Amino acid sequence: MNLTTLKKILLRLYRYYVKKYLNKLFIALFLSFAVAAGTAGIAWLLDPAVKKIFIEQDKTMALLIPFGIMLAFSVKGLSLYFARTITIRVGHEICKKIQVEMTSKILLSDAHTIESKHSGKYIAHYLYDVSMIFNLVSTGLLNLMKDSLTLIVLISLMFYQNWKLACFALIMMPMAAIVAKSLGRRIGKVTSQSADVSGTLSAYVSEIIKASRMIKIYQQEKFEFNKSEKILDSLKNKQIKMGLVMFRAQPIMEVITGIIIAGFIYYTSLMVSTGEIEINSFFSFLTAMMLAYQPIRSLATINMLFYQGAAAAERVFEVIDTKSTIEQIDHMPNLKIEKGSIEFKEVNYTYPKTKEHAIKNINISIKGNTIAALVGHSGAGKSTIINLLPRFFDATEGQIYIDNQNIKKINLSSLRKSISLVSQDIILFDDTVRANILYANLNASEEQLKRACDFAAATEFIEKFPESYETIIGENGIRLSGGQKQRISIARAILKDSPIILLDEATSSLDSDSEEKVQNAILNLTKNKTTLVIAHRLSTIIRANKIFVLDQGKIADSGTHNELLKKSEIYKNLYNKQLSTN
Ligand SMILES: Nc1ncnc2c1ncn2[C@@H]1O[C@H](COP(=O)(O)OP(=O)(O)OP(=O)(O)O)[C@@H](O)[C@H]1O
Ligand SMILES: [Mg+2]
After folding, report:
1. Measured over all CA atoms, what is the biggest interatomic distance in the chain, rounded to whole angstroms?
2. Hey, where are the domains in the chain?
3. Which one of 36, 216, 458, 462 has the largest count of C-beta atoms within 10 Å of its C-beta?
């Protein structure tokens, strides 16, 4: 990371996140003053302590000065504690704000943008990167205030005690600055690499957990173990490197300090012999110098915190800054549904990062309240067509109309409200049966819920669960059977009660009993609605008013089942090979 980027990111962090807490940070700054004063007070008190108590043996001072020292320590300790409580609060508030912004971005981005990155990488942004930003805005900021103030006060004290010695001791400062500068840049780079590996690790862990059954049946435990070892190894190396760079400043600083103190003692021995410095000033000076060592060391490493935090913020901002091409614009007119007719006009779609059209020249016209079916070989583009309707992504070319309204020119929310989707792979939350079904309509009454479940033929199995509707179904419904999952997802779609139904029929076939139940559920779902179904089952196809045969992204034929059997070779082929089997 170069200096310009660093400045830009820090400035943005300041403007949008830190500025709001400026008043609190001022209090922390004031408390930092107290810490600095307390620290310097300790060093300063040693001067009278030596002089009055040991040399002059003053009885009152023998009581007052120790009391003063105790007070100085207390002021330092308490102020530091309160300053920390402020910066910890501010730091976490800022982290939460950043996490909220990332969440809202993830929720509102279009499908392709979100899916372009593994979920594990997002998790790393939430945990790893945000913790780095916390270190910057909490620890970094506080240390910067407290240590620079302490240093200034201690140096002033050193000058007060003896300016010649002070000049001598100050040679240390530029050396420390040079060390700090070179290490700071390096740490930014290592942090970025380490964040990358953290992202890879969380992606990997989530994959092996999801794939646990597949790993077992293919007996690839060893393979995965080796793979994990590689990732963990690389993370370990990056972390070690980061740790080492972090503390590389320390021995250099120690050596510099050693040289300075050695030279200092030699130099003072000369001064004491000429009577240029008194023993009490010397003690006070030495203490100030020793105490200055900690803030110097901290300041020498502080820019690493800044580089680390900025590198993390850069990655987080990248998520926050992604532009969504498909978004809700409030002033757009709402979709007005009359019959729910659907029309595709010359629609093409190409997936990002691919060259071939997934679908081309699609012209489909579906009358309201009818059932249209899409059939075709795997990969023909059926799911792509369905996904264009709720605008998960937009057609590359061509237009799509619902009741003669271009879907790009209407309010996104009203469009999605009118569409129910039962997809090929069912998505369920790790929550109760009730919560999963009510997801379609959080305000639905108990009666509506039960009715939807009845229609979806789901009531019978739900009520057999010991906890009925309150049963927790596990991650993506792991505790349910395939047919049960399908029926829950259908109940959810029924509850949404929208005029257009998109159905991507599951290819996995169920036993004939469950099959019949799911079919009945679908029949209930699609009653009096416009339905576009990707059909894999003959029963669905026969029911369709119109069938579109899709071949390599193009509509090859259309008509009813009987018409197509007569005129379409592709359809006949498909029918003989796939459809008739189930
Ligand atoms: N996210 C994606 N990125 C790139 N290409 C994709 C993406 N999704 C699908 N494709 C490609 O687009 C083409 C059409 O895919 P689509 O999912 O529409 O097929 P389908 O007809 O639904 O197949 P199936 O019956 O197997 O579900 C395929 O060649 C596929 O490889
Ligand atoms: Mg598909």
Report:
1. 120
2. 3-194+248-321, 338-418+498-507+530-582, 425-497
3. 458
CATH domain 338-418+498-507+530-582 topology: Rossmann fold (3.40.50)
Which residue minimizes the CA distance to atom 18 of ligand 1? Answer: 381
Which atom of ligand 1 is the closest one to the Cα of 386?
A: 18
Length of the chain (residues):
582
CATH number of 425-497: 3.40.50.300
In the reported structure, the alpha carbon of residue 116 is separated from the centroid of ligand 1 by a whole-number distance in angstroms of: 15
Ligand 2 centroid from CA 398, angstroms: 21
- DSSP state at residue 56: S
Mutate to test the pocket of ligand 1, among 359, 375, 384 (most ligand atoms within 8 A of CB): 384
Average confidence (pLDDT) per 10 residues, the chain, 582 residues: 87 94 95 94 89 86 90 95 95 95 90 85 91 93 94 92 84 68 72 82 88 86 92 89 77 78 82 84 86 82 85 92 84 89 93 89 91 89 92 91 92 91 86 91 89 86 89 86 86 90 74 72 82 84 88 90 87 76 51
Can you tell me the distance from the alpha carbon of 567 to that of 570, in angstroms, rounded to the nearest whole number? 9
Three-class DSSP labels, 142-183: HHHHHHHHHHHHHHHHHHHHCHHHHHHHCCHHHHHHHHHHHH
Residues with CB under 5 A from ligand 2 (ion): 383
C-alpha span between 579 and 556 (Å, rounded): 17
| CA 349 – ligand 2 centroid, Å | 15
Residue 551, SS3? strand
Beta bridge partners of 550: 376, 555
Atom 7 (ligand 1) nearest CA: 351
Q: Looking at the CA of 353, which ligand is closest? A: 1
Distance from the alpha carbon of residue 573 to the mean position of ligand 2, in angstroms: 19
Q: What is the DSSP letter of 391?
A: T
Main-chain dihedrals φ then ψ at residue 117, nearest 5 degrees: -130, 145
Please tell me the number of the ligand nearest to residue 354's CA: 1
> Which of 440, 429, 578, 442 is CA-nearest to residue 505?
578
Q: What's the CA-to-centroid distance between 425 and ligand 2, angstroms?
A: 9
Task: Return the CATH architecture of domain 3-194+248-321.
Answer: Up-down Bundle (1.20)
d(CA 72, CA 153): 14
Predicted TM-score (pTM) above 0.70: yes
Angle in degrees, CA 357, 361, 366, rounded to 5: 125
Looking at ligand 1, which residue's alpha carbon is closest to its atom 16? Answer: 381
Residues lining ligand 1, CB < 6 A? 351, 354, 358, 376, 378-384, 424
Compute CA 550 distance to the chain's CA centroid, rounded to the nearest angstrom: 39
